[in-house]
Write a structure and sequence with these properties.
- With 194 residues, this protein is an alpha/beta fold.
- It has a single domain (3-190), classed as 3-Layer(aba) Sandwich (Aminopeptidase).
- It has 6 helices and 6 strands, in the order βαβαββαβαβαα.
- It has a 6-stranded mixed β-sheet with strand order 2-1-3-6-4-5, with helices on both faces.
- α3 crosses α6.
- The radius of gyration is 15 Å and the shape is globular.
Length: 194
Amino acid sequence: MPSCTWDGGHGIDTPGKRSPDGVLREWSWTRDAGEIFAQTLNAHGVTCTNIVPEEKDILLSERCKRINRITKERPDNVHVSFHINAAGDGSKWLTARGWQVHTYTNPSVGSRRLACFAFDEAKEKGFKVRPESPGMPFRPKNLAILRETNCPAILIENFFMDNKEDYEYLLSPNSIYECAEVAARAVLKYFGKL
């Protein structure tokens, strides 16, 4: 059976991971989006597991170990890491905005495919996307959750919490459902279920 693991960005008390006014918290939003993502995949026959059920921040090394343990049991596993972006330290409103997807700097074929499906789904949804790498719809980045995992993996930055337009969207209940749907449809396409 196809398998997907996911994690939400950071922990409940991780400093700085919030909008400048303190209202939008990355931990809470990504947890809610991830749960809807998991429900959607489970309903379509993809076993989906949250690798960080704890509220506190879990070290990246431990997150990767958890993903790799599941991947060893389920070799067809893929991983999606949910985040909200910020252009600064969270202290003021800035202008950078949009949705983007990351892979490792030297991504596997599977990671590329998954990222491309996510990008296509975001475009189809009408999201303002940020393709920052020439000729690629994803942005390669040397992040542990992408580098140290033994399965195709992507990290999605679901808009900017320190941009007022993105912030207003992220505060709407629709944002959680729409961003979860984009990620879920990407995984379902990856496994040939859509």
